[in-house]
Write a structure and sequence with these properties.
GO molecular function: UDP-glucose 4-epimerase activity
GO cellular component, one term: cytosol
Number of strands: 21
Bound molecules: uridine-diphosphate-N-acetylglucosamine
Pfam families: Epimerase (PF01370)
Organism: Sordaria brevicollis
Protein name: NAD-dependent epimerase/dehydratase domain-containing protein
Strand content: 15-25%
Largest sheet: 9 strands, mixed
Number of helices: 12
Length: 462
C-alpha cells in the first residue's frame, strides 16, 4: 500500500529544458533478448545523452509554434513503446489532445523517423488550431534497463512520507508522470511459438520489473496493451466477446435478464505463448491491484487494429517479416510480395474465411486517452475494456475493401488454416461505450482508404 506524503523537500530542478528533443542512451539500445544483462546498463546521466535532429528544424517548417510552458511541475504521460504502430498513433493523439508526452522506445521494432513524423503532425495540428504544442521528450532506452529507473527518478521529486505499516518517516517520491501506457511487448504468434522464453522474458518478466519500478516512484495509473487473444477459443462461440468472458478474480455481474450471477475465472484454448503472455500480464496486474487499492490499472483488449493516420505520413512499419493481415497486404500492394495466402477458407462463416473485428488504429489510440481519463476520475483497481468495433468482417471482405481503395486486384491463394487461429473474433462494445464513453468512429472502408494513402505515399517517397 502506498504511503501518503506529509512534507516535501526539493533536491533541485533536475529537469532541463530539452523538450521536443531526442535523447539517446546508446549503450542501452543493445538487444537484451540476446542474453546480455540489462543490469550492466549504466545509469542515466545528463552527459550520457546524445542529442539528435534538432526539433527546431521541424518546428521551423511549421512556422511559429508556441511551446507549452515547463517549470518542472508539468505533468506527462509516459508512453513505453511509443514509436511502434499503435504507440506512435497514440503518442500523436495524446499530443493533439494537449498532453505532454515522454516516449520510451529502444527502436527494436520501430524507426527514428517515426518520432520526426509524429512531431511534425502534432506541430501542424497545434498551428492549425492555434494551441500551444505540448512537450514531447524521447528516450531511446530499453524499458527493462537500469536507465529506466534513472529516467523515472529524473521526473520525480523526493518527499517525506509516513509508512502506513510502521508509522515511520520514509523517503517517497512525487512524480511528474501522471500515467503510463505500456506498449513495449512482442506480438508475433509464430515467433512466440519458436522463442517462448524470449516472449515470457519481455512480456511477463519485463512487465513485473516495470511495475516494481513504477511502485517505487509512486506511479500507479497504468494502461496495459492487452489483446482479444486472451479470450482464446471462447471466441469460437460465435457471440461478441464480453469482458466478463475472461476475468481474473471471481466477479458478480448481471445477466441479460437482470439477475446477479457469479463469474469464475476460467481460461479456454489459449493457443500460443504470445496469448499466454497477455493472459499472465493481465492476471499479474489484477493481483497487483487487488493487493494495493491505490493502483488504477486498465487492460485494453485490442481486436484487430488496422489503417493509419489519414495524413499518410505515419503507418505500420515493423522491422522484420510481417505476419498480420494488413501489413502482409501492404507488402503485396507495394510489390514486395506476389500474393496473399488466405489462411483457411473452410471456417463456418459467410464466405469460409475467418471473421475479425478490424478497428482503425486512431480509434484504438483514442481508446487509450478515454481509458486514461476514466482511470484518473473513476478508475479503481483493475479493469478491462475491449477495443473493437463490434462488427465482424471476413478476411475476403477486408481484402475487397483494400482492392477498392487501391483500384486494383490483390492476387490471392487459398491455403490451409494457420495453426492457433480462431474462426471468429468480434468484440462486445457495450462496456467501453457505457463506462469510457468511447466508440469507434471509422469503418473498414476508411481503414483501407487510409492504408492505401500511406502505401501510395511511401511508394512516392522511395
Ligand atoms: C491475433 C490476435 C490479436 C493479436 C495479434 C497479434 C486473435 C483472435 N487475435 O490477431 O489479438 O493482437 O494476433 O499478432 O487471436 N491472415 C491471412 N493471411 C495472412 C495473414 C493473416 O489469411 O498472411 C488471416 C489470419 O489467418 C486471420 C486474419 O487474417 O484469420 C487476421 O490475422 P492477423 O492480422 O494475423 O491477426 P489475428 O491473428 O486475428
Amino acid at each position: 500500500m502506498s504511503s501518503t506524503s506529509s512534507s516535501r523537500f526539493d533536491l533541485g530542478d533536475h529537469v532541463q529544458d530539452q523538450d521536443l528533443s531526442e535523447e539517446y542512451l546508446t549503450s542501452s539500445s543493445r538487444d537484451y533478448s540476446a542474453g546480455s544483462s540489462p543490469l550492466t546498463t549504466p545509469a542515466l546521466s545528463d552527459n550520457e545523452f546524445d542529442f539528435d535532429v534538432p526539433s527546431e528544424n521541424v518546428l521551423a517548417e511549421e512556422g511559429s509554434i508556441r511551446l507549452a510552458p515547463a517549470d518542472g511541475s508539468e505533468k506527462y504521460i509516459m508512453v513505453i513503446g511509443g514509436l511502434g504502430y499503435i504507440g506512435s498513433h497514440t503518442t500523436l493523439e495524446l499530443l493533439r489532445e494537449g498532453h505532454n508526452v515522454i516516449v520510451v522506445d529502444n527502436l527494436s521494432n520501430s524507426y527514428k523517423t517515426v518520432l520526426k513524423n509524429v512531431k511534425m503532425l502534432a506541430a501542424h495540428h497545434c498551428k492549425v488550431n492555434n494551441v500551444a504544442m505540448p512537450r514531447l521528450r524521447f528516450f531511446r532506452i530499453d524499458y527493462r534497463s537500469k536507465a529506466m529507473s534513472s529516467l523515472l527518478e529524473r521526473y520525480s521529486k523526493p518527499v517525506m512520507a509516513v509508512d502506513a505499516t510502521s508509522g515511520r518517516q520514509v523517503v517517497s517520491y512525487q512524480s511528474q508522470i501522471a500515467g503510463v501506457i505500456h506498449f513495449a511487448a512482442y506480438k508475433s504468434v509464430i515467433e512466440s511459438i519458436a522463442q517462448p522464453l524470449r516472449y515470457y522474458r519481455n512480456n511477463v518478466c519485463g512487465l513485473v520489473n516495470l511495475l516494481q519500478e513504477l511502485e517505487r516512484f509512486n506511479i500507479r495509473n497504468f494502461i496495459f496493451s492487452s489483446s482479444a487473444t486472451v479470450y482464446g477459443s471462447k471466441a469460437n462461440a460465435g457471440k461478441p466477446l464480453k469482458e466478463e468472458d475472461l476475468v481474473h478474480h471471481q466477479v458478480k455481474t448481471q445477466n441479460e435478464a437482470g439477475e446477479t450471477t457469479i463469474v469464475e475465472p476460467t481460461i479456454e484454448g489459449l493457443s500460443c505463448p504470445y496469448a499466454r503472455t497477455k493472459y499472465f500480464g493481465e492476471a499479474i496486474l489484477a493481483d497487483v491491484a487487488e493487493a494495493d487499492p491505490d493502483w488504477r490499472i486498465v487492460a485494453l483488449r485490442y481486436f484487430n487494429p488496422v489503417g493509419c493516420d489519414p495524413s499518410g505520413v505515419l503507418g505500420e512499419s515493423p522491422r522484420g517479416e510481417p505476419t498480420n493481415l494488413f501489413p502482409v497486404l501492404t507488402q503485396v500492394l507495394k510489390g514486395d510480395r506476389s500474393n496473399l495466402n488466405v489462411f483457411g477458407s473452410d471456417w463456418p462463416t459467410r464466405d469460409g474465411t475467418a471473421i475479425r473485428d478490424f478497428i482503425h488504429v486512431l480509434d484504438v489510440a483514442r481508446g487509450h486517452i478515454a481509458a486514461l481519463n476514466w482511470n484518473s476520475k473513476k478508475g479503481n483497481g483493475f479493469s478491462t475494456f475491449n477495443l473493437g468495433s463490434g462488427t465482424g468482417t471476413t478476411v475476403l471482405e477486408a481484402v475487397r475493401s483494400l482492392e477498392q481503395a487501391a483500384g486494383r486486384e490483390i492476387p490471392l491463394s487459398l491455403v490451409d488454416r494457420r495453426p492457433g487461429d480462431v474462426g471468429t473474433c468480434v468484440a462486445s462494445t457495450e462496456r467501453a461505450a457505457k463506462e469510457l464513453g468511447w466508440t469507434t468512429r471509422e469503418s473498414i472502408t476508411k481503414c483501407a482508404a487510409d492504408l492505401w494513402n500511406y502505401v501510395s505515399k511511401v511508394a512516392l517517397r522511395s
